[in-house]
Amino acid sequence: MNILFSVKPLAKELFSTVLAAGFDPYLGFYHQPRYGRPALALDMMEEFRPVIADSSALTLFNKEVLAGNDFIRTGIGISLTPDARRKVIAGYERRMQTEVVHPIFGYRLSYRRILEVQARLLARVLSGEIKEYPAFVTR
């Protein structure tokens, strides 16, 4: 499931996170470098898309925060109403503030902080401090 309205904020968040960790967000491993495409942010996003983007979008629908009247049909596609945009951003922010136990370190962190930890772990792999990248898994 690719729900664009919850993926864009995550991509922007990871862009800032990888930049803060000292990376060039436009040079990735899996996504092809292209002008204006933050390949590394998109690479890291794949790890978090199900637990952050998809989960926050599904929660908005399951709890009936979003409904059919929150969408506008246009000639080129479907977009959100201004009120629905606020709901999506609020749902995304709630998810980013949710604290979970990090599987490697064993302490509670918000998803926003986990993004930073994972970016720093990637830096340690590339510098040779650790052998392989420990992916974030919730179960």
- The strand line-up of the biggest sheet is 1-2
Given as residue ranges, the uncertain stretches (5+ residues, pLDDT < 50) are: none
Largest sheet: 2 strands, antiparallel
Overall 3D geometry?
globular
- Summed over residues and divided by their number, the pLDDT gives a mean of 90
Strand content: 5-15%
SSE succession: HHEEHEEH
DSSP helix count?
4
Number of strands: 4
* Spatial extent as radius of gyration: 16 Å
Structural class by sheet pairing and helices? mainly alpha
Helix coverage percent = 40-55%
Distance between the termini: 20 Å
Description:
The protein has 139 residues and is mainly alpha-helical. 53% of the residues lie in helices and 10% in strands. It has helices at 4-20, 39-62, 82-97, 111-127, and strands spanning 71-74, 77-80, 99-101, 108-110. Strands 1-2 form a two-stranded antiparallel sheet. A hairpin with a 2-residue loop joins β1 (71-74) and β2. α1 (4-20) packs across α2 (39-62), α1 packs across α4 and α2 (39-62) packs across α3. The relative contact order is 0.15. The mean pLDDT is 90.
Key words describing this protein structure:
single chain; 139 residues; mainly alpha; two-stranded antiparallel ribbon; 53% helix; 10% strand
Helix and strand arrangement:
Elements: H1 4-20, H2 39-62, E1 71-74, E2 77-80, H3 82-97, E3 99-101, E4 108-110, H4 111-127
Antiparallel strand pairs: 1-2, 3-4
